[in-house]
Write a structure and sequence with these properties.
Helices cover 53% and strands 18% of the residues. The protein is α+β, with helices and mostly antiparallel strands. It folds into two domains: 96 residues; 120 residues, no CATH class. α1 packs antiparallel against α2, α2 runs antiparallel to α7 and α3 packs across α6. The longest helix is centred in the middle third of the chain and has 30 residues. Keywords: Membrane, Transmembrane, Transmembrane helix.
């Protein structure tokens, strides 16, 4: 790309597409002359030229540095949005453990086994679960419908009370104080049904469209060019 053309690529595509869309909406007809040059009576020939100009302007925009950076940023934001939705779904699924229900998607057997191990410890009077936090969410699927299964690390947060003997050995004032502890369990597997994957995709797209400032910069020129291209092609073939 030439340095002096970088800022004009998007503008040229939007202007040409806008002219075609407005002319179609208002039903404008092509003039007989432009700058004292007689135009051919077969208007389809003119639309062939217009279609070629539109295709060239679109090609320049698609391969421009601005469009490439915007597409890369949008893809990254979309992946992060999918991770956030997965994080919400997994967190909500793990909360079912507090209500003595089986999670829908997460394999909770290792979590329950580890919690039972803590409860059977001889140094605790009791152990109660306070939180389950999924970790390492960047490892979760975010690239398509074929990746609906995976694994994640889960942090168990629990409260406990030492036995009097253990509390006396550690600190004489600890026997009446509930303590907090955390432990991690890796490779907790999960599997989502296809309907959940569609929900994740739809939610991520809505979130992206609502929050990303870059989407209009790319989608508006693409949309205008697509609509104008259809109009120009139909008129060129008539």
């Amino acid at each position: 790309m030439y340095e002096d053309d970088k800022d004009k690529v998007r503008r040229n595509l939007v202007a040409l597409s806008g002219f075609i869309l407005v002319s179609a909406y208002l039903g404008l007809k092509l003039p007989n002359k432009v700058f004292e040059v007689q135009l051919p009576s077969e208007t389809n020939k003119i639309w062939v030229v217009v279609s070629a100009a539109l295709a060239y302007a679109f090609w320049r925009f698609v391969h421009s540095e601005e469009a490439r950076k915007a597409r890369s940023s949008i893809a990254s934001q979309y992946a992060s949005s999918r991770v956030q939705v997965y994080d919400f779904l997994i967190s909500r699924d793990l909360k079912r453990v507090f209500h003595a229900k089986s999670p829908r998607w997460v394999n909770a057997s290792p979590i329950k086994a580890r919690l039972e191990q803590e409860r059977n410890s001889s140094q605790y009077q009791y152990v109660r679960l306070t939180a389950l936090v999924p970790l390492n969410t960047q490892q979760w699927p975010h690239k398509g419908f074929e990746r609906r299964s995976g694994s994640t690390e889960v942090e168990i947060q629990f409260a406990f009370l030492y036995t009097p003997e253990m509390a006396g050995d550690i600190h004489p004032n600890l026997h009446n104080m509930e303590q907090q502890a955390r432990t991690r369990i890796g490779e907790q597997t999960f599997t989502f049904p296809r309907r959940i994957e569609f929900f994740v995709t739809f939610s991520s797209l809505v979130n992206l469209l609502a929050r990303s400032e870059l989407v209009p910069e790319v989608l508006i020129p693409y949309g205008m060019a697509a609509g104008a291209g259809v109009i120009a092609l139909v008129r060129a073939l008539n």
